Amino acid sequence: MSGGPSTAVRMGTVDGRRVLAATILASGMAGLDMTVVNVALPRIGRDLHAGFTSLQWVVNAYALTLSSLLLLGGALGDRLGRRRLLVVGTVWFAAASVGCAVAPSSGVLIGMRGLQGIGAALLMPGSLAILESVFVVEDRGAAVGAWSGLGGVATALGPVLGGWLVQSASWRWVFIINAPLAVVVVWLARGIPETEVDPRGATGLDALGAALAAIGLGGAVFGLTEGPARHWPALDVALLVAGVLVLAAFVWREAHHEDPLVPLDLFNNRQFSATNLVTFIVYAALSGALFLLPLVLQRVSGFSPVKAGSSLLPVTAVMLVLSARAGRLAQRIGPRLPMTVGPIVVGGGLLLETRIGAHASYLTDVLPALLVFALGLSLTVAPLTATVLGAAPDRLAGVASAINNDVARTAGLVAVAVLPAIAGISTAAALPAATLAHGFRVAMTVSAGLCALGGVVSLLTVTDPLHAHEPPTPEPTRCPVSQPGG
After folding, report:
1. Mean pLDDT, to the nearest integer, of 182-209?
2. pTM here?
3. Nearest-5° angle of CA 205, CA 211, CA 25?
């Protein structure tokens, strides 16, 4: 993007609405596949004869490749153009979705989900970084809030749509639906101004760093997922340890490479580091909770797939109404208060979910918990996202977005792998309802504690730039990934 005033757009204009629609639909499509699949898991397990660990991998294969390659996707967007990577990622994602829809076995489905994650890794960093590059400064908070709220709507509609498709047709339709959505994204993206590209293109990109990140994360997550189910055989322990060591090698590589995939200088900014720490804590809690809730509603409470999916509609409504307003509030008063209160309120909602069990009533047991959960989520997401982007130099918006997305996805990977094991519900393909209900209560209590911790960390580490005059982030001197003004 040329970055000058002539290309900046405003909220409420035709151009602004087009940019928002394309980026929200693209990221929402990728987010949709996180939640829509959760509702379909019981039917997938039955039709493909998949055990609990296989179902974990249906979720984690997508999240693993997404997390592993987000950094590469962000760097490629900064170098080659964020709109271009958004379109390429969308087309890739749609093709992999069709592969998921025709998968004849759980192994093929897991492989196709991994390919889906690659497409999502290409499109997601650009969808958020485009907002930072295209909108005028005073509208960026509201734009990010709209992106968070409406993107959250798309994600929250996933369980409803997925439940209806699973119950009335087949779980395979939850993947087919991505194809027409991708066509709309590509059409809308024609009107997005392209970001300024690096003349070097992908030349000199830290491919070894990208490989180390992918291999290290893959080994660690495989060990964490398979270890509890198989009572920690030597192979799983070795993979976990090897993964951690490779990730350490990745950090060393980035610290010493002339043109790193992840400019570690970004973490010299306290605001950037603090916000990413809060992201990891809170998103670990959210991911673990949202993985288990649809299973419990169907297997323990007796909800149909449609009813289980529709139960999350209040989250959609609350985020639609409040997210943009929370973004504006944080831009006016600073992010510290919303990022402190929001996670604590989310934790209160998760504690209320411990009341969900056999014969749970939607009105008295499920709805109050989800309303509190949605209120806290609305207060948290937009300020957090805008803060982490605002703490990075404009020309590194793609990498900063990728880092924050990667932190969130990695937290989700760890939570889906570890939380069921902590709760004692990861070792059987078909757990008794009472065992699943007890484990769910334990998991929600742990998740609530994590959210409260996230609020405390925000209170102690996040600052309000309007009142606390923190020096600006220095431009990293060893990693000129784009031309000045990008």
Report:
1. 74
2. 0.70
3. 75
